Amino acid sequence: MDSSTLILECNEFLDSLADLNLKVYCTVYDNLSILNDDNPLNKFDNVEFDNLKDENDTDVENTIDNKDNKDNKDNKNNKNNTEYKPNKFENFDKYSIYSNEKQLLNDLEKNLVILEDYREKMELKGFDTPYIGVGRLNGGEEDDIYDILNYSSYLRRVVDEKKGSLERVKYAIVSHKIAIGNLQDSGNLDLICNLPYDGSYKEFLLQLPHYVVKTYKKFLTILNSEGKSTLSSTTLSIVIKENGRRKFKRIKVEEEDYEKYIRDTYGDAIITSIKKNYTKSKLLNDQYVKKILALSYLHTYQSLIGDKILKNISKMLNMSELSLISQYKQICQNYERADCDGGIIDVRQINELKFKKLQLISKLEDCGLYKDGKPLKCLEKSLEVENAIFEDACLNVPLSYLSNDLLKYYLNNTADERTRSNLFPSILVTPSKSQLAWLRLKNDHKKVLNYKLILEKEFPKYDLPIKLTGGILLYLAYDWDLVENYGYSKSEIESVLKIICNLEDITKKLDCEPFDIAKLKEYNNIKKKKTKKFLNALGKI
User: Fold this and answer.
1) What's the pTM?
2) What is the pLDDT of residue 437?
3) How many Å apart are CA 473 and CA 447, to the nearest integer?
4) Which of 474, 402, 394 lies closest to 438, judged by CA?
5) Where are the alpha helices (DSSP H) in 77-144?
6) Mutual angle of helices 3-15 and 101-124, in 10-degree steps
């Protein structure tokens, strides 16, 4: 199969996945009423803010703790949006919806196999390095200049097609993996309704409101969090004996005990220099995973972002300030320039643009919003407050939900389970404390998570079940209700508590806030100190 045929066939398959978002939504929530709307995409439409709401709107923190209300959250901000939007799914076949989640999961897994096969074929054909092997015409007669230009344009188009097709496949693969992971591990079902299954990443980004798009890069930066430098390898200069002669050698050793490695490999060698190499690991290494996660969380919670913005605006800005902002934006909108074609400004129109800017400033001064070419302090302050409200809501609302999902992911899964899980593909199995410092969680929740990642390495020493580490910490920090909300069994936790209460090494580590080790006393049936010392000694063998 040649490259052109492969691209065509792959794009046809990806295009067939365009309505998968809607199928997933209808399957997960068993809701066909969305298909009766003029535009079933209103679940995924942009949010518009034409009117302010009351101060009683739902706050994101309360929403996280009360997920029973989630079914009503998506349509709140679309009621006043009268702008017509084309119905992408007007020919949608409601009978093609999956009968249950298992059927959906099977179809997603089949799609994933096909997509991975396309990716493999494309990489074998060099789609990941499209510029290699692409020639370019040089020289030629003056009459041939148009042929040269046309050929160069053709080559660029071929390269763009190859690169774009492979990237689209990779975005689709990540979307399918995240959906499969959330279905298999009882994850975030809201999230899987907002994934670009057809790989149309850029189109998905442009569907977001402009004020949310601005937050996108900040979101990516957070997901790119780096931990402290860790020792990755050691570069050694050594002198060894080879065939009776001394020979200088430079080697790179990844083992922590490099001296043992040298003894086992080279025998009696002399180390002349040592250089330790440090690297900073990222929380998420895969750029495709980072982009899809950022987009899906922003899409999923954009209506709650709108609720948060409207609530804070009504609290922090009075009517006179809102009137100033409205008047300012109306005037600026009337002077919006339409002199750009594809992002390129015609040089001949620069003077005209400067003139329009002067006209705008003059108009703002006539309306009493500007003075001496600068905005009035009251207007400037109001715009700063509004901008801060938008930035805070657009970033912190989705991050709050992502933080909550990550907390459950790390608490409920062992390191081995996290290695195999697709809830967060390519995420670090055991991140450092600094890499999770950005989490929008209460300090107590952060401490519980940090201690969980520490103790899951200690529990195997005492033959304790790692799977219950999170439940034990939740009980010592909170109560049984929260433990059971996270899916742990009270009887299983209590059976482990009877052992832990006699392990001084572990109880000493937990003797700090937010943990209440006094709760362990009721499980302590061993009174003799000798027996307790023996149990602790077993863990150090």
Assistant:
1) 0.76
2) 87
3) 10
4) 402
5) 101-124
6) 160
